[in-house]
Design goal:
The complex is a heterodimer of chains A (133) and B (128).
Chain A (H helix, E strand, L loop, with lengths): L3 E6 L7 H15 L3 E6 L23 H4 L4 H9 L7 E6 H7 L9 E3 L1 H10 L2 E5 L3
Parallel strand pairs in A: 1-2, 1-5, 2-3, 3-4
Chain B lengths: L3 E6 L6 H4 L3 H11 L3 E6 L16 E3 L2 E3 L5 H10 L3 E5 H6 L12 E3 L1 H8 L4 E4 L1
Parallel strand pairs in B: 1-2, 1-7, 2-5, 5-6
Antiparallel strand pairs in B: 3-4
Helix pairs in contact in B: 2-3
The chains are: A alpha/beta (133), B alpha/beta (128).
């Protein structure tokens, strides 16, 4: 029977390999049939921002289309559709969203707060906090 | 059964001026208000949060001001009043030349030698 893992992320996009590692953990857990809750705190609320845009890479000599610049919003969208789209739940910290003006996000995540995180913790088999340093 | 959590606050002064508080201390205070059994363990530079009587001055950037800079010792005291337990690593305070007399009396002080046994008492250990 699948277990439930809650993960708190704190790093903003494009700043830390911690985020990539967290995405890999989430993907692996979903692939193995587990349920994952992600609570995006502080800068991590920007991971799902709708307005992210890929850019060309002059150092690579590549255009936007050639570069295939990965966007965290697309990664999260891909994770949300994994496992039938029902085993990944994502909350963006509401106050963190407000202070950043980061309220325009992709379909799937919902707004929440520390109380929602604690509810998840009480219902989960394990909780992993991945803060920024 | 209720889960006992220890949140180790190790990274200090992370955007505290912009946030007017420490976001990890704040978050754990909020968790306590949601019913969580929370202990804050201050380590590294974060032991300085428990120094009594901090009075950071207001700050301004042109016409923009931060009139209420963070009062981290007071925030800790409010968290304690809400039911959060406060512990700090005595060795890290010593390394920084912070005498025990300068620290909040509400904070339990443990040594690094006691740390492993101390952590055994919790269901969840979150290292922020």
């Amino acid at each position: 029977m699948g277990k439930t893992l809650t993960v708190l992320l704190m790093d903003p996009p494009f700043e830390s390999a911690n985020t990539t590692t967290a995405f890999r953990i989430v993907e692996a857990a979903l692939r193995k049939g587990h349920t994952v809750n992600v609570f995006a705190y502080e800068g991590a609320v920007s991971l799902t921002m709708q307005g992210q845009q890929p850019h060309p890479n002059p150092a690579h000599g590549k255009t936007v289309d050639e570069e295939h610049h990965p966007l965290t919003r697309d990664i999260v969208r891909g994770l949300l559709t994994s496992g039938g789209g029902e085993r990944l739940h994502w909350i963006n910290c509401g106050l963190c969203v407000d202070e950043r003006g980061a309220g325009d996000w992709i379909a799937g995540p919902r707004r929440g707060g520390p109380g929602d995180f604690w509810q998840w913790v009480t219902e989960s088999d394990q909780t992993l906090v991945i803060p920024c340093r | 059964m209720a889960k006992k959590v220890v949140s180790i606050v190790d990274t200090a002064y992370r955007a505290t001026l912009e946030e007017q508080d420490d976001t990890v201390v704040w978050f754990n205070h909020m968790l306590r208000q949601s019913g969580a059994d929370i202990t804050l363990l201050l380590t590294g530079n974060a032991v300085n949060y428990a120094v009594r009587g901090q009075q950071p001055p207001p700050l301004s950037f042109g016409t923009a001001a931060i009139p209420f800079p963070p009062r981290l010792d007071q925030d800790l005291r409010k968290a304690i009043q809400a039911g959060v337990k406060l512990v700090l690593l005595r060795d890290d305070a010593d390394m920084r030349g912070i005498p025990a007399s300068a620290l909040m009396p509400e904070a339990e002080q443990i040594s690094r030698e006691q740390l492993a046994d101390f952590l055994q008492g919790f269901d969840l250990v979150w290292h922020w």
